[in-house]
Amino acid sequence: MQDEQGLVRRAQEHDQIALTQLYEENFDKIYRYTVLKIGDRAEAEDMTQQVFLNALKSISSYKYKGMPFSSWLFRIAHNQVVDYYRRKKRSATVPLDENITAGYDNPGWEAERKMEIEQMTAATRQLTRAQQEVISLRFAGELSVAEVAKVMGRSEGAVKALQHAAIISLRKIMSVGMGL
Amino acid sequence: MKKDREFENILDECLENMLRGKSIEQCLADYPDHAAALEPMLRTASRAKMATNIRPRPEFKDRARHQFQAAIRDMDVKPARGHGFFFRSLKPAWIALAALVAIIIAGGGTVYAAGNALPDSPLYPIKMATESVRLFLTPSDIGKAELYAEFADKRIEEIVKMADKGEVELVQETTNRLNEQLVAMASLTIGDKGTPDSGGMFSLGSHESSRNGEEALTTVPQTTVAQTIAPTTAPPPVVVTVPPYPDKTAPLETPERTPTIVPPAALSAVSDGRVNDVTDEENGDRERIEKLKDLLLRQAIENPEALEKALETAPESLRDILLWAIEVANAGYAQNISNLE
Q: What does B7-32 look like in DSSP terms, one character per residue?
């Protein structure tokens, strides 16, 4: 954490290496989060780029409060997702874009992984919005419970309870709906 | 209520351990009293984790990276405390250079250590960041091409080492990176030959195209070809074919490949055919291009050989990825050599 603080400080001084390192370390996670929340590859790509450009613009206002830098990036991403749905006037996750891919060059794996993604996204869509958020941040974003709590503005206990309930629901949905 | 909270804490601890790479069995062994309740939850969570492991398309990642780097360059560079005038008087590129020098002096050990980091090392992102900065600080296309050649060499070494460790995903990721860098190199304009819209735009079967085998073959050029160069006429377009990424379900056979052959005589013909009244700068550039060509010719032979050697001892799970890496290297080097002719 001490190292990351130093890295962020350098990034705030517009140090090219520090900015690039923070970008490379977080890019895939932010993309995974947005793609799961939006369900549309093109929109998720635009949004991921925008998250980093917005972060770049406002990095000087970032203040270290004991949480990793990624929590701050996810907060930006979360706000953009909320804004996206407000603009689109959509109340829930849109259907998964058929163009979303797992990112593998091997077509065999790609098909297998795509099916997994589709099944999981379909199951996730049946969760409450707060449960969806916990699953996206925890598994796609790889944030800890404390970090998820920070992004969502809830207590750690509340996030743990949401996580528990979300996994129970996913289990039920997947065993009923997919014959597991 | 208290029991619920206790279970939520245990579940979270197991999930945290699982996300850090611990197996479900290891997690269950830590809490034998709760194993029955935990197991189905952890299996569902594991599936959710695997399903969410979506990766961005390499071409999107590349485009986004360039846009981000451009945005950094466009940023107002704030003066450092106490050195306002000095820093204000510098251009952003020089400030980046100064920052790089400062980091090398202050934290040079880390940057140096990262230079040899492998994809499974925590220092690897620093190595990638350093490569990006080196590219950023290199204004000329020939300079960038030299860097890409150096990076491609490193990627091959990383693929071989990761294959030796049986790291399937990292071999795949590094091969994608090799592909991206060879494509980026081919899109540079070097001398008066390469153009971003011609030879440069070859594609080595990104997942976008390989989802559709037909499409992959039409956009991806044909086996490595060496062409005869006549100094007075424009060279025919280089065609390079790369087979689509092998399907995991298809029987795995080592395909017969046409070896990369670019006759040295053809390469020297390029320089022989040029006009004589050239400036020192042009001579210098030509010399660098010749050196780069020599380097690529050597790499085009040695690197696929290193990958083939790795293939000989690789487990089944790595065979198709390594075959793909060989194709990426063969086609990428052939294209870049052709672009320099």
A: HHHHHHHHHHHHHTT--HHHHHHH-G
Minimal Cβ distance to B78: which of A14, A53, A110: A14
C-beta of residue B130 within 8 angstroms of C-beta of residue B138:
no
Cα B228 versus chain centre, distance: 30
Q: Is the ipTM of this complex over 0.85?
A: no
CA distance to A158, B153, B324, per residue, from B126 (Å)? 36, 18, 27
What confidence tens digit (pLDDT) does each residue in B142-188 have? 888 999 999 999 999 999 999 998 888 888 888 888 887 887 787 77
Q: For chain B, give me the number of helices (H) and strands (E)?
A: 14, 0
Residue A140 CA to residue A120 CA, distance in Å, equals 12
- Residue count (chain A): 180
Kindly determine whether residue B54 and residue A19, on different chains, have CB atoms separated by under 8 Å: no
Distance, CA of B238 to CA of B223 (rounded, Å): 10
Of B5, B65, B207, the CB nearest to A103: B207
Contact call for B11 and A167, based on CB within 8 A: yes
What's the distance, CA B98 to chain centroid? 27
> Rounded to an integer, what distance in angstroms lies between the CA atom of residue B72 and that of residue A13?
11
Q: How far is A79 from chain B (nearest CA, A)?
A: 20
Question: Whole-prediction pTM value?
Answer: 0.49
| B52–A120 C-beta distance less than 8 A | yes
DSSP label of A147: H
